[in-house]
Fold each of these.
Amino acid sequence: MSGTYETEQEAHAASLYALQGCKQDMRSMNLAELAEECSGLQLGSYDRRVIEWLAGWEPSTVAVICGLIIRARQAGPQ
């Protein structure tokens, strides 16, 4: 789920929402995905508000944001 995406369809197919077969509501799945990728990070109340806001976006957008977080962690400090 951390690859680069060329299309929205690729991002959606990689999203936790699509992988789970849409068994839960989109917002809950998105929030779980974002929370997983942000685990271990110190978050402020505004950070959490933005994560909640992002959870309302379509799964393809959340997959891209999570992919960026993963790749930034892998790249390390520049």
Amino acid sequence: MTKKENMKTSGLRISRTTLPDKSQFSISKNVEDENFLKLLQQDSRELTIVLSLDGRIKYVNESIKTLLGFQAFRLLGTNIQRILPVQQWVAFRAAMRASEEEADQSIVIDCQFIDANNRKQSFSVSVKDQRHHPLVEGFVVHAKNINRLKKQEEKLKLRNLAIELIQEAVVIVKAKHPSIAYANQAFFELSGFTKTEIFGGKLNLFKTPYNKMLFADETDPKQIEKFQRALNSNRKFEGRIFSKKKNGVVFYNRFSLIPVLDEEGKVTQYIASMKEIKRRKA
């Protein structure tokens, strides 16, 4: 059996982030294999670390320079706690222990590492027990930077919180199959509908009978024409119309609809806002 066949049958996933380094594991390779390994390590954007049972770093790929600012060789032999916030070590150690019990699976956790500038960086981390593998003899840790994802999640939470706190009813409508994808609490209070009644395509503001609730009979036909022109030309609509609540009560509605376009200029969503106002006296 060849060396490559032996590596495959032993269960180690051969990839650019798991190929071991010759200097750390004393593997005899020819020059072509060494050059290929260097190329893989150079291109890898994922951090790979091999740890001993006590958390000592046996191997780390060159991605750590880009991701955390450390020289790989300076971390060899040190404990993983050097780049872990104190509160993260308990969770990290628990993941290692869990991987011992589930040796055939990777344990995935969200974790932070400390970079060379003493700043915390967020990663999605998988830990797998490979201590019995002759080429590894340790825990294989893969870590993918998720800083951008975390920031996007925080922005989304803030946006949703802001929408929930504003007093106007806000609704997000899918364009391809018009149905409500999101509505804030103010919408439910204004309309009288519940979440189970409007989500999943059950309420379409643009089709009968629900469009009669958006544009009640008392609405000026000119406003309806203005709305249709805006809808057909992917433009924003603003107007004062009459709408109906679920219980049939008619109210004067300051209504706006804004189309959301993708890079090709196609409408992906509509953002609608509604607010009950007093009718102006003639």
